[in-house]
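Researcher: Structure prediction, please.
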Amino acid sequence: MRIVALHLIAFLISALVQGQSLIKLTVIDSISKTPIATATVKVDNTVMKVTDNLGVASFSLSVGSHHFIITTVGFHEAEFDVTLPLSTITVALYQEGKKMEEITIISSTRNNQCIENSPLKVEVLGREEMEEENTIKPANIASILGDISGVQIHLPQPGICNFFSLIAGSQR
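Model: Predicted structure follows.
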């Protein structure tokens, strides 16, 4: 009885093994022919593996037709059908064109652009403001600069005309 059971188990295992096919799939770059690591390989939308550093993913699949989808960042998706038994498949992926998003460059230089059209914040002290400040404290530029946003005026010692200014965004 035991011998019959062992033969039955051996027969079932051999039937299962014969219905399976071991496949080695290699993913490479179409231009440089170098292996692509971390590519995702889906088989029949159920089995999913990721390629190793050599660009290889191994599967044990049943004999018959299978649908493969290979994706990775920076490359176009590859989709194809394979009928097994096969032992190795090499797939070359094509690189996607590089796209840049909108870039904003902010710079400051001397140019012929009018101050009114400048994209930077610029405060202009007009003649009226200068005359008004001059009537309050004549010949005191510290009071004029103190009216500009982002400028701080510090008097180190009261009674002495020396002062220093801090401008927002600058270093001492």
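Model: Residues 9 and 15 are 10 Å apart (CA to CA).
Researcher: Thanks, that helps.
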